[in-house]
Write a structure and sequence with these properties.
This is alanine--glyoxylate transaminase. The chain has about 425 residues and is α/β, with parallel strands linked by helices. It has helices spanning about 5-10, 50, 60-70, 85-95, 110-125, 140-145, 180-200, 225-235, 290, 305-320, 325-340, 375-385, 410-430; strands spanning about 25-30, 35, 40-45, 100-105, 130-135, 160-165, 205-210, 240-245, 270, 280-285, 350-355, 360-365, 390, 390-395, 400. Helices cover about 35% and strands about 15% of the residues.
């Protein structure tokens, strides 16, 4: 990236929009799982535009689907007209959602999808009380920010919702960290009952939760915890919203949706990121009686537009035809096992965690569980120097995040693993 472009960026864009790396890069080309910057340097991409370029770059099937739609001359019509691509994609998503008698409403982003889910839930339950989880992230809009349990991503203390907070399932720190999986589930359920009894009037609209907390550093609860929560919620009809913006479409390897690890079916499910493979596409799926509880006209001007849904259809078809969920499990295991073996025993590594191709490495000061964001950043920069792009996250900014395209090959997984292990060892000076 040229200094000129960086200076121009800083002159016209807000400072609260962060840029990665001490020397920010401009990506000018991509193919498969690799991107090239303006200086001609090639990188293996393990972050995929924040888990969005789910199929990779320059995929013929997706490009051709978009080009066919562009060739019609109809890029946009608004949802006031029938959109064939939208209806076809909604049918596929409804069928795969696991939600009976499902309806789909398309938006442009995960933030909008979660905002729509909260609108629907609060209307359906006639209550603005919502349960959310500490360390969560659900978006940058007013209500979505209100249910985000991470101070770094909460730009305002004002909130249209009355939110009560549940403990997260962080295994490194926090009240539940000292417990085993079964005990953690029991404690989380007890926590939910106490929160309902002490912080709400009982008529709560919904609980919103990520199966794996994305911005939160890929923290995730033991399988079955959502089932324990939902049993309590069902006693009074409180809705369960699964935020699948990052976990959906088979990324965890185990299941198509993250919620399926818990043996439940949510009332509402939000999706975004990967389904568009870079095109703006997101939405909410819910039971018809719930999603229909909007008492006035509402629509999304650009949500589910012909071009984005043409891409979405091609993405979903490619995902299923190539069984990318199985690939995420297989290739993700290479990364997870390799990281645990090579660096999991280092004093500065608190945990290697995640599922499938959604993995995080948490760094701490040696011998403690005190977060070390400075070390994390040095590893992050060293990986880039080695030709690997990754992400960062966690409540304290001390988690290196990886969410490669689901088309990642075994050879590429081993290549990226070697770069990352070298980066960690070079920065820490430690041997496994």
């Amino acid at each position: 990236m040229t200094d000129d472009l960086l200076a121009r960026h800083r002159a016209v864009l807000p400072s609260w929009m962060p840029l990665y790396y001490a020397e920010p890069i401009e990506l000018v080309a991509g193919s498969g799982r690799r991107v090239t910057d303006a200086q001609g340097r090639s990188y293996l991409d393990f972050f995929g535009g924040v888990l969005t370029n789910m199929i990779g770059y320059d995929i013929p099937e997706i490009r051709e689907a978009v080009e066919r739609q562009l060739a019609t001359g109809i890029v946009h019509s608004s949802t006031l007209y029938l959109i064939r691509q939208q209806v076809e994609l909604a049918e596929k998503i409804a069928q795969r959602s696991g939600i009976p008698d499902a309806r789909v409403f398309f938006t442009n982003s995960g933030t909008e999808a979660n905002e729509a889910a909260l609108l629907v839930a609060t209307n359906y339950r006639r209550s603005h009380q919502v349960l959310a989880v500490r360390n969560s992230y659900h978006g940058r809009s007013y209500a979505a920010m209100g249910v985000t349990g991470n101070r770094n991503w909460s730009a305002s203390g004002l909130n249209p919702l009355q939110v009560a907070w549940l403990h997260s399932a962080d295994r490194v720190r926090g009240l539940l960290a000292r417990l085993g999986p079964d005990e953690q589930v029991d404690a989380a359920v007890e926590d939910l009952r106490e929160v309902l009894a002490t912080q709400t009037t009982g008529d709560v609209a919904a609980l919103i939760a990520e199966p794996i907390q994305g911005v939160g550093g890929f923290v995730h609860p033991p399988d079955g915890l959502f089932a324990g929560w939902k049993k309590v919620l069902d006693e009074t009809g409180i809705l369960f919203i699964a935020d699948e913006v990052q976990t959906g479409w088979g990324r965890t390897g185990e299941h198509f949706w993250g919620y399926q690890a818990h043996g439940i079916v949510p009332d509402l499910l939000t999706f975004a990121k990967g389904i568009g493979n870079g095109f703006a596409l997101a939405g909410v799926v819910g039971r018809a009686e719930v999603l229909e509880s909007v008492p006035a006209i509402s629509f999304s001007t650009f949500g589910g537009n012909p071009v984005s849904t043409a891409a979405g259809n091609a993405v979903l078809d490619y995902l299923v035809e190539h069984d990318l969920q199985a690939n995420a499990a297989r290739v993700g295991a290479i990364l997870a096992d390799g990281l645990r073996s090579a660096v999991g025993g280092l004093d500065c590594v608190a945990e290697v965690r995640g599922k499938g191709l959604m993995l995080g490495v948490e760094f701490v000061r040696p011998g403690t569980n005190e977060p070390d964001p400075a070390l994390t950043n040095r590893v992050f920069e060293a990986a880039r120097d080695g030709g690997l792009l990754t992400g960062k996250g966690g409540l304290y900014g001390n988690v290196l995040r990886m969410g490669p395209p689901l088309t990642l090959t075994e050879e590429e997984a081993r290549e990226g693993l070697a770069i990352l292990v070298d980066a960690i060892r070079s920065v820490t000076g430690e041997e496994a």
